[in-house]
Design a protein that fits this description.
2 copies of one chain form a homodimer.
Chain A lengths: L4 H14 L5 H8 L3 H7 L3 H22 L7 H12 L3 H9 L7 H23 L9 H20 L8 H11 L7
Helix pairs in contact in A: 1-2, 1-4, 1-6, 4-6, 4-7, 5-7, 5-9, 6-8, 7-8, 8-9
Chain A binds a DNA duplex through helix 3.
DNA sequence: GCGTAATGAGACATTACTGTCTCATCTGAG
DNA sequence: CTCAGATGAGACAGTAATGTCTCATTACGC
């Protein structure tokens, strides 16, 4: 079948999100290839999971790049980053779900760089008076990703329309759900 | 060591959040008991995981009860439920992390009941004009739990002070992070 | 059509975890 | 103190997954 690494990684990701304990056999079948080929492409399960993590980080990093978060007001930057993040929420989700990835130094470092970029934008937004000062910047940053992941799950489970997701995340993040400012 | 089931479940939960693939051996050591005793307390790994899920649901359910979410305005109800949820965010986290639990009918059903209770409060809040109507109730409900779990992670990793967490979640949820209503 | 490379199917040994067992030791009630 | 019950340490077989291998078949460039 489709033996290109892109497809394999995508299918493997999709499966591992649902069943993190899936065996190589299941992963291979999900990707439409044999277990032998999967082993030829990746030295072992660890290597595969690390490749998935690296790929996920590439996607997230590219999304943040595409959002040009360093340009313009922080609130608009956050809207853009959410817009870019939602289509790849699955990749973001696996970075959250597969805690084993945090123990890979390179992956953890790469994640830290992404987190720091968003964090810097948040702090800038606070300094510019665009974002609230009474919430820790680290928490706002965490919320951006948490909400994106949560919305991704909701979309996958059919509780939230895909086209509603980006606006839903951005509106909730920036404006909150209350009609009177709490 | 401490052989009461309460401690064992708590330690097992704490470990499985970090390493969902942990072996019975690791779990026993983390709980300070021998693998033999762990097997005497729970018939097997499945039984242990299901017990953890059931315990987690009890905690979450008790938290929602304690918050009396059906009383008073919805925004205040959400603040109370966040206050009650944060101390047990780890239990909430494992319900999100251990996807295997969703496949246990009783646990999934119990979770649905909790989700529905919060969802009903959200819809009531929208009908009362307290919560925004332009965000799906299901998404707001999802966000409550997503933010609580995310804040729990941030607290565990030292990125957010524990005492800041409840207010941080409630403020972000209800008021958003922007200084101008977005 | 030919030949090289890649794939699929499956055998195989190895490893890791599980679940059960025994037995020595410890603990606590009477 | 004594004894019953609980625990810890570890042996043991069974099982599932891994990683490596071979070989037949397929796909593809020439």
């Amino acid at each position: 079948m489709s033996t290109d690494r892109e497809t394999v990684l995508r299918e493997a990701t999709a499966l591992l999100i649902r069943r993190p304990a899936a065996a190589m056999d299941d992963i291979a079948r999900a990707a439409g290839i044999s277990r032998a080929t999967l082993h030829r492409m990746y030295a072992g399960r660890d290597a595969l999971v690390r490749a998935i993590g690296a790929r996920a980080l590439e996607q997230v990093s590219a999304a943040v790049d595409a959002a040009r978060i360093e340009d313009g007001p922080a609130d608009e930057a956050l809207r853009r980053v959410v817009d870019e993040l939602m289509p790849i929420a699955e990749f973001l989700g696996i970075l959250y779900g597969e805690n084993a990835l945090c123990e890979v130094p390179e992956i953890d470092a790469a994640w830290q760089r992404i987190d720091n970029r968003v964090n810097a934008v948040v702090r800038q937004g606070q300094a510019d008076g665009v974002l609230r000062l009474d919430l820790p910047a680290a928490w706002i940053t965490e919320a951006v990703f948490s909400l994106a992941v949560g919305a991704g799950w909701a979309v996958r489970d059919g509780r939230l329309a895909r086209r509603e997701a980006p606006r839903g995340v951005a509106e909730l993040l920036l404006g909150g759900v209350g009609r009177t400012r709490g």
